[in-house]
Amino acid sequence: MSVLNVHEAITRAHREQWGRVVAALTRRFGDLDIAEEAAAEAFATAVDRWPGDGVPPNLGAWLTTTATRKAIDRIRRENKRDDKQKEARMLYEDVPEPPGAIDDERLRLIFICCHPALAMETRVALTLRMVGGLTVPEIARAFLVQETAMGQRITRAKAKIKAARIPYRVPSAADLPARVSSVLAVLFLVFNEGYLATGPDTDPVRHDLTAEAIRLTRLVRALMPDDGEAAGLLALMLLIEARRTARVSASGELVTLGEQDRGAWDAALIAEGHRLVRERLAAGVAPGRYQILAAINAVHTSAHDVRDTDWSQVVALYDQLVRIDPSPIVALNRAVAVAELDGPEVALAAVNRLDSALAGYHAYHATLADLLRRLGRSQKSRAAYDKAIELAGNTAEAAYLIRRRDQLR
């Protein structure tokens, strides 16, 4: 196998196996630092050995076994544990855990990291790192904060878990409701990173992340069938995933919703997403954030042509969303819909009010550039495109923005 193929195998293994390896080591050793560092050492060992030895047939088993040995070596070196009998049992026995509410090991770790003792944003950031395998820069971009600040937040979270001696046990059914909101937030961010990947050396769309996020969300919904937001998030993911193959052109450029080949959308995923949305509407319960976002996407995927989109319904749904989530990003997305309903001038006034909150967000500048272009203000539009291109982390999106900028007179 060539060096290039080995590199691709390692990259694929990191995407697919990181969370599983960390979850297995966390369950066994009860320490996030040990689990993360041992997993990292296992992948470093793979980089050294696989080019010469060949890629093992079972990547997950090889990585987990290697990481376990690395963790045992570290514990032996530290040699700071008082209970030697307990240490020996932990090192040499792989005692199965008692059954709990969650069978999937990776999902179990998500619920463990989303402990109520941690602040919500900290839970999400920690879980994205430990389970999703996202890098600190990727997580920082998702939260619109500096990389150093995000790194410190994750480090403090692991230290707090260790100091508070938060148990690494399978959450009981009674624990799930208090943690489900942050678990859903984690899964949504993992999905978003896959749907519009921000890493400089990654594919613009990472199907491994979107598929895993959908799989885990299905498990959450099976655990909590009456939770409206779990159903709403699953519907939202399915309706977005249905458009995945139409989102990037053959030349590697982002294809916007209005320009996509709707015949290439996955009809089965759309039908399932619509069914979930209808079920939640029939429940007669006030919808949460994910349910409203799913309803918005249901409107988009119901239109056979972009010109058939019911923009008044989309704006009305955003009005409902703003009342429960008055974030600047929601306001920005609402403005995009307003531009279709009331025109770019009205939308531009709304977007301009978001400048201080979203100055470092590429989508803000991309939206501003498009509205200015539609109003014939080419010079200002070009400057906004330049800023959006500078901030964009996704290669396909950057290519689209460059073409749109270069079309300006």
Structural summary, described in words:
Among the domains are: 3-92; 331-409, Serine Threonine Protein Phosphatase 5, Tetratricopeptide repeat. Helix content is 70%, strand content 0%. The protein has 20 helices and no strands. It has helices at residues 3-29, 32-53, 59-78, 84-92, 105-113, 120-130, 136-143, 147-163, 176-195, 207-223, 228-241, 267-283, 289-302, 311-324, 328-342, 344-352, 355-358, 362-374, 378-391, 395-406. Helix 2 (32-53) packs across helix 3 (59-78).
Layout of strands and helices, then pairs:
Elements: H1 3-29, H2 32-53, H3 59-78, H4 84-92, H5 105-113, H6 120-130, H7 136-143, H8 147-163, H9 176-195, H10 207-223, H11 228-241, H12 267-283, H13 289-302, H14 311-324, H15 328-342, H16 344-352, H17 355-358, H18 362-374, H19 378-391, H20 395-406
Number of helices: 20
Distance between the termini: 50 Å
Helical residue percent? 55-70%
Mean pLDDT: 87
**How many β strands by DSSP?**
0
Give the DSSP E fraction (strand runs of 2 or more residues): under 5%
Query: Using only CA atoms, what is the Rg?
Result: 23 Å
Largest sheet: none
Family: Belongs to the sigma-70 factor family. ECF subfamily.
GO molecular function: DNA binding; sigma factor activity
InterPro entries: DUF6596 (IPR046531), RNA_pol_sigma70_r2 (IPR007627), RNA_pol_sigma70_r4_t2 (IPR013249), RNA_pol_sigma_r2 (IPR013325), RNA_pol_sigma_r3/r4-like (IPR013324), TPR-like_helical_dom_sf (IPR011990), WH-like_DNA-bd_sf (IPR036388)
Protein name: RNA polymerase sigma-70 factor, ECF subfamily
